[in-house]
Model the fold of this input.
Amino acid sequence: MATKKFMFVNRKAPYGTVYALESLEVVLISAAFEQDVSLAFIDDGVYQITKGQNTDGIGQKNFSSTYKALGDYEIKKLYVEKESLEERGLTPDDLMDLVWEDEDDDWAEKPSIILVDRSEMTDVLADQEVILSF
Amino acid sequence: MKFTIMINEGPYQHQSSDSALQFARAVLAQGHEIFRVFFYHDGVNNGTRLSVPPADDRLLQKEWSELSKKHDLDLVLCIAAAQRRGIMDASEAERQGLDANNIIEGFRISGLGQLIEGGIQSDRTIVFGD
Done:
């Protein structure tokens, strides 16, 4: 089967609606198809990968640890829009430490998060072949 | 051109299904091909046969069902999303030990891989959602 550039655009907070959770389910399935997969986090979507999420008070599953497993599925390009962080008073330090292991470099852990500004995000999106927006 | 269409919202509450239906008709009218229509999130509610809107309103599920029959469309409800929301075909209802099913003719239930395959096989993948 052909390889295409798939991008999953995450625009919504992790809780409040089911979009983030069900988006992650598609992302994990896509890994089995050996596609060139990347993720974008814009608007409230940046909250999906913030540190220290705690869902005790809302009776829902905390699925934030799943993002840490993405590197094991060869999903290692997570584009995060700088302006979306800034508009919410967040910095890159507020995000989880998401990494992938580079087998060509003695399995060194490398960061998966790629910070881009809004215009760079436009270029990244323009470069994709299939964009699924959540 | 070959299209895959993804619908992420249920009927009535959002316009996604209406817009996608109109888009699908336009695509077919122009001689293009629809490889698959994939329903995800609350979009799986487009596949129930138990909707009863007021008589002067459209019955979206039936419109999809009829479009499918006319053009032999592949309408797929995501199984994980459908299970969460109580959309069942006969075999799935039996497997889950439930007393009823509610899928409308023309739809089938399958996995998320069908969406990814649609993206790979189609020239364009169009998402209708919020």
User: Anything to note?
Assistant: Chain B has one domain: 2-50+58-128. The beta strands of chain B are 2-7, 33-39, 75-78, 107-110, 124-128.
